[in-house]
Design a protein that fits this description.
By secondary structure, the chain is α/β, with parallel strands linked by helices. It folds into two domains: about 110 residues, Cobalt-precorrin-4 Transmethylase, domain 1 (3-Layer(aba) Sandwich); about 140 residues, Methyltransferase, Cobalt-precorrin-4 Transmethylase, Domain 2 (2-Layer Sandwich). Helix content is about 25%, strand content about 20%. The strands form three sheets. It has a six-stranded mixed beta sheet with strand order 8-9-12-10-11-13, with helices on both faces. Strands 3-2-6-1-7 form a five-stranded parallel beta sheet, sandwiched between helices. A hairpin with a 2-residue loop joins strand 4 and strand 5. Helix 2 crosses helix 3. It is elongated and about 60 Å long. The C terminus is likely disordered. Bound molecules: S-adenosylmethionine (SAM). The site of S-adenosylmethionine has 25 residues, from helix 4 and strand 12.
Length: about 270
Amino acid sequence: MKGMVRFVGAGPGDPDLITVRGLRALQEADVICYDALGVAPELLEGLRAELIYVGKRCGRHSRSQEEINALLVELAQRGLEVVRLKGGDPGVLGRVGEEALALAAEGIPFEIVPGVSSATSAPLSAGIPLTHRGVADSFALATAHRRKGEEGFSIPPYNERTTVVLLMPVRTARAWQAALLRRGYPRELPVAFVSRGATPAQRVLVSTVGAAAADAEAARITAPTLVVIGRVVGLRGRGLRWWNDRDARECAEEPTRVDVLAEARA
Ligand SMILES: C[S@@+](CC[C@H](N)C(=O)[O-])C[C@H]1O[C@@H](n2cnc3c(N)ncnc32)[C@H](O)[C@@H]1O
């Protein structure tokens, strides 16, 4: 008897921001395979399911993607109800397609429960809607993660009506800053780093294209952080800041809750 796999988006890190369907899937699961960053630990408390950690630690994969694919297949073939829990929305830089294709190849049924992506919710919690009438009518999302030897970013040429969101921007800040300047982004265009967005630990650093990398280093920005580039960032200072977040410059020396959890797990 084959089981099935439900891919569930956990939301941006606040346990209240998972969907009702996603929460029900966690409660019904026999086994949950989860990543570290982005998944609120509270979501995993008090469940009957066996918990298997398959995430990254200090930039290293604890299991390769192929091993994760094989694990999901094996668990489902044992007849188990499996949840594969992923941060944010599984379809946004979440590799859900690779894992679901591995299941499809073995004829294993799966379901995908969408989640609240950090890409939209973290900016919004920082008082930065990605579109705003008369300011921006489109947005582009790109990863700023680079594998060794990989060049270039999928950053579009500058258009003042397009907001750009970069995920995984911390390690490559110097490189994407240079890419923005090459593509015609004005040096004074505002940039916001939103760390642990949409959670009680949210920190925000507002900078500019010209100063972004140096400011992020000075403020010791760490993952999970995303970057918003464009005129919509200015709305935060014009009255849209509604979350009681902290300025990243003021708490550069303090360890974060995520740092403390990562240490405890190591
Ligand atoms: C591998 S991507 C996965 C994105 C996820 N699927 C989503 O929809 O949010 C991980 C990156 O998402 C961003 N991220 C995730 N949670 C975040 C949060 N609460 N605040 C800011 N950025 C976050 C960071 O850029 C992080 O490095």
